[in-house]
Design a protein that fits this description.
The protein is mostly helical and 101 residues long. It has four helices and two strands. Strand 1 and strand 2 form a beta hairpin.
């Protein structure tokens, strides 16, 4: 018996929360600033350079998938490797000071 496919549904809560950070609160209160930021982000992320970067990351994820609890991590040499999520994010939380080669 074939498995039943469940259709994908949009997360109704996506984009609803403003977050707790100072910048999130600021942009929630100031519509003109938020519009300006969104216009910049749209232009930035639609650039050829960012599209190539995303394609590179997608290719890396396809060729070398992550195990459960792992992220892709950038090395100083510019390579992508699998690394424990907690290690990767803890290091990046300390001002982004990378310690691996």
């Amino acid at each position: 018996m074939a498995t039943k496919k469940v259709p994908q549904r949009k997360n109704k809560n996506a984009g609803k929360s403003t977050g707790k950070s100072k910048s999130a609160k600021y942009f929630a209160k100031n519509k003109s600033a938020r519009d300006k930021k969104n216009a910049y982000n749209s232009e930035y992320h639609s650039s050829t350079k960012r599209k190539k970067y995303r394609a590179k990351l997608n290719k890396a994820n396809r060729s070398k998938p992550n195990a459960k609890g792992e992220d892709k991590s950038h090395t100083k040499a510019g390579k992508l490797v699998n690394e424990k999520r907690s290690t990767n994010r803890a290091r990046n939380g300390r001002g982004g000071k990378a310690k691996k080669k």
